[in-house]
Each structure stands twice: as C-alpha cells, then as structure tokens.
Amino acid sequence: RLRKADRQKERLRLLADVAQRRNGQIGRLAVLVEIVGDFAGLHGLPPLTTDEQSPLGDDRGPQPSRLIAAAVANCLAASLLHCLRKSKVEVAGLQARAVTTLTRNTKGRLRIERIAVALDPRIPDNDRDRVSRCFSIFEDYCIVTATVRRAFPVSVEVVSADGREIYRSESEKT
Q: In Å, what is the CA distance from 36 to each residue of 13, 144, 172?
C-alpha cells in the first residue's frame, strides 16, 4: 500500500481521443480515465481551459462534452475504487473508458445521446468473490452519473483483465 503522503502526490490522468463516425451516428467521443492514486482535492490545481474544435474553437482544451464523459467515468471509477478498498480488496489499478454517442435533435443541434462506460479494475483473482457487493452498489454513490441519467442513458460494465464481462447495468433516462 502507498503511504498517505505518496497517494496525495499522485494525480488522476485523463486521456481523451475522438472516435470515427460510424453506423450513421453523428459522432462518438471516447475518454479514458486512469486512477493512479487517491484524490487529493482541488487545492493547487491549475485552471482548466476548455475549447471547441476548429473552426468554432482553437483546440486549446477539451470540449465540454468530453468533460461530461470524463466526469461520469471518473465518478464511477472513484465509487468502485472506494467500495473495493472499504472491502479490503487490493486494487493494483483501475481504468475507465467512456464512449459518448452524439446525435442531432429535431432542430438539428448536436446532443449527447448516451454514454457507455467500461471499468477495468486490476484485482487479484482470489478477491473476485468479495467484490460482488461492490458491483451491486457502487453506481448508487456516483453523483455525476445519477445526475446525467436524468438527461440520457448511461450504461456501465465492469470487465476483468482478460476482457470478460463481470458486471453490466443498462440505465434508461429517468
């Protein structure tokens, strides 16, 4: 285990990329969030610049729609990580990938249609039996996901290191 001082020095890394258009959808945005330590809070973090892609923007920062996906992925990952640690499960790492599907509304404006999140916790095989309770409750503690589900569906899956699906929830807009 990392000492508390070491955990506070670690930060969350956010990697974002844009997926290609496919299946007649307007677009998809993909975001990868990796938990690399405990959350030290917002003190001392630099300001965050957001922007839009050209020609509207100058590509100087992530698009707000990407930040929504990153917030959902990060919140779910943090909720799962917290539950696993409270259950005394050693977590060697955790990644969350969020894919946002975009569509146009009746007026032709772009909107987020749905977000699909895949969580990949690195946990020992002998702890798999102790994690089932976490899978049944961690989504309930994610304030961001609960909020955006009022506007559009968010699906969540947890996969094992070999890519097998361990857990899946499919939400509909509430």
A: 7, 20, 31
**Across 94-112, average pLDDT:** 92
Residue where the block lists tokens 């030290």: 40
CA proximity to 29, closest of 84, 109, 87, 110: 110
Tens of pLDDT along 33-57?
665 555 555 556 676 777 887 778 7
DSSP the chain: ---HHHHHH---EEEEEEEPP-TT-SEEEEEEEEE-S----STTPPPPP----TTTS---S--HHHHHHHHHHHHHHHHHHHHHHHTT----EEEEEEEEEEEE-TTS-EEEEEEEEEEEEE--GGGGGGGHHHHHHGGGG-HHHHHHTTTS-EEEEEE-TTS-EEEEEE----
pTM score: 0.74
Sign of CA dihedral 137, 140, 141, 144: positive
Task: Give the whole-angstrom CA distance, residue 37 versus residue 4.
Answer: 10
Question: Which pLDDT belongs to residue 27?
Answer: 57
Is pLDDT of 21 > 70?
A: no
Residue showing tokens 């258009």: 21
